[in-house]
# Entry
Amino acid sequence: DTGVSQDPRHKITKRGQNVTFRCDPISEHNRLYWYRQTLGQGPEFLTYFQNEAQLEKSRLLSDRFSAERPKGSFSTLEIQRTEQGDSAMYLCASSLALRGGGRQAQYFGPGTRLLVL
Amino acid sequence: DQQVKQNSPSLSVQEGRISILNCDYTNSMFDYFLWYKKYPAEGPTFLISISSIKDKNEDGRFTVFLNKSAKHLSLHIVPSQPGDSAVYFCAASGFSGTYKYIFGTGTRLKVLA
# Structure
């Protein structure tokens, strides 16, 4: 299967700990996105990469959050000093930039469910 | 400020009938719209999209209609099947240099056998 993969699928941590999530996009996709979803809400945009460049960050992404995509392939999302409010599903998506600026849908991974105790 | 709204949290439809899911948006800069389906404990699955230059796009049992003047889009599923039972999200994107999606809060569809 060559879809978007995320690891781990579930993470339980204690408040104050650091956690890191990994996303492997569809191999030919050069755009990668992180979203967060809480119960009863739709996914909320966190950040976006084109190749290795992080081009946009949401105001939701506090300074405790950092994301990288060092070689333009996989990406990591780290949360430092986790808080209970960080409990959510963290979703990664990828898409392919089309010539001429055409649009292509974002394809999502299965998500990492984080529970902060 | 909720720029994309799905005002019906849930919908029940008999198998074989039409399901109509609705979505309203407020930002006139949005020019690309999508529908995703989500099962529990899985990521959203892309269903169908529409550009603002069109008013209809069809893919098999799924048709999306866009009414730009009303800032409204809808997803029609015909015929509905029990496997269509899921949460459906509409999403919108604007051509402003960013490619992020703004999602609605979802509508839970239940197709009754």
User: Anything to note?
Assistant: The CA atoms of residues 30 and 70 of chain B lie 13 Å apart.
